Amino acid sequence: METIGTSPAVVVDAKLAEYGVLEQPGGRDLQALVELAALVCAVPTAAINLITGREQRQVAAAGIDPSVCAREDSMCAIVIGEPKPVIVQDASLDERFATNPFVTGQIALVKFYASAPLITPDGVTIGRLCVFDDQARELTAEQAGVLEVLADRMVDVLELRLRTRELEQARDELHRSNELLTLFAGQVSHDLRSPLTAVIANAELLATEPAVVADPDAAALATAIQKAGVRMAGLIDTILRYARTGSSLDVVEVDLERLVSTVREDLAPTLAARRGTVTTGSLPVVRADLQQIYVVLQNLISNAVKFTPVGVAPVVHVAGEVTDSGWRVTVTDNGSGIPADRRDSVFTLYTRGAGNVEGFGIGLATSRRIVEAHGGEIGVEDGPDGGSTFWFTLPQVG
Fold first, then answer.
1. Of these four, 5, 238, 271, 277, which has the most CB atoms within 10 Å of its CB?
2. Residue 338 three-state SS
3. Would you say 266 and 298 are in contact if contact means Cβ atoms under 8 Å apart?
4. 233-263, pLDDT tens digit by residue?
5. Are 293 and 259 in contact (CB under 8 A)?
6. At 132, phi and psi to the nearest 5?
7. Side-chain-facing half-sphere of 385: CA atoms under 13 Å
8. Helices then strands (H, E): number in the chain?
9. DSSP 214
10. For residue range 156-172, what is the model confidence (pLDDT) as tens digits?
11. Distance of CA 377 to the CA centre of its chain
12. Which one, of 299, 319, 322, lies nearest residue 369 by Cα?
């Protein structure tokens, strides 16, 4: 697709409408990037200028309040078709800008002007990242390179917002129909990861740029962008892992006693910190997907430890018994128990347990999907001596 310089304005307006960026505030992520652009380029003012068919919209700015002007008055609209950064030491001496109202004093007195294009993955130029000053100045090649990288990251942020909105809309639907999750994961995983990976990777690179390292404020902004991206990646990974769970099973013989031992080893730091113990009764060898049943046991045992009240050493017991159709595995704890009216909801996506415990509320929902994919059931009841007993069944598999 061609850029705005040669394509109908309706294409750009449609892309901006898709991003929804004109209807909502710029947000902390775009604000951080535009402030970083001003710091790196050592100028007092920077702005993200989006160019519609009729006007220029500043959705985030540093040094000024975001504003709107007619497209014909925009300096960025003049060079919107330029695919690379444009650097002008003194705009009053450049024939492209000499009569522009931002240069002549009618709107402002811009001398120095530099900008980099905001180009979407499908090739539509929606605006430019602009830095400017009322004093003539120069921009080093290194600064120009960072400006271009920041412009690319701004588009990544818009793409990430778009894909996240799609994720949220799909998530609402998934509350009603979990069967759509596997299809959803395949459709959005690449679209989510591409811009987010770029944001994280380039934030890390920006943090090593000499111009950023030398400026504490710029370094702090780059670090903030990186950390926010990592947090979002963690949430996306968790949701997508849940979406793919149970879609296929690699059935093998699984020694549940050995598997519980592995879980105990993996949870050793948590158990040590809480002075917790995990014991086992008789546990069978079953036919199941080893990795996925590990996830079930890991979720149930770790939850038993996490939700035991502070000051109480967690005691968890895992046992199994034969049933008419297969096996019933139980995980009993000495926690506070779960009220009867909440026992069904704890296996629902995004439901959190009581207390200030980290997590996304996906572990038990994931466990249910795995058990049901095996043809079994999962539930919770009162423990024999207080606390709770979580149980799941695994039918005999030939």
1. 271
2. coil
3. yes
4. 765 666 666 666 656 678 899 999 999 999 9
5. yes
6. -155, 170
7. 6
8. 12, 13
9. T
10. 999 988 888 887 776 66
11. 32
12. 299
Q: What DSSP letter does each residue of 73-105 carry, written as one string? A: G-HHHHTTT-SS-EEES-GGGSTTTTT-HHHHS
Identity (one letter) of the amino acid at 199? V
User: Position 173: which residue type?
Assistant: E
Q: Count of CB atoms within 10 A of residue 338's CB?
A: 20
Give the list of residues 6+ apart from residue 93 with CB closer than 8 angstroms, or none.
none
What token pair was written down for 161? 């917002």
CB 52 within 8 A of CB 71: yes
Helix (H) or strand (E) holding 158: helix 141-176
Distance CA 73, CA 76 (A): 9
Give the integer Cα–Cα distance in Å for 231 and 238.
11
Q: In what side-by-side order are the strands of the sheet with 112-119? A: 68-70, 55-62, 45-51, 125-133, 112-119, 86-88
| DSSP result, 159-203 | HHHHHHHHHHHHHHHHHH-GGGHHHHHHHHHHHHHHHHHHHHHHH
Q: How far is CA 179 from the centre of its chain?
A: 23
Burial of 356 by CB count in 10 Å (0-12 exposed, 13-18 middle, 19+ buried)? exposed
- Among candidates 367, 392, 390, 366, which has minimal Cα distance to 380? 390
pLDDT given for residue 4 in this prediction: 44
Q: Name the phi and psi angles at 59, rounded to 5.
A: -90, -15
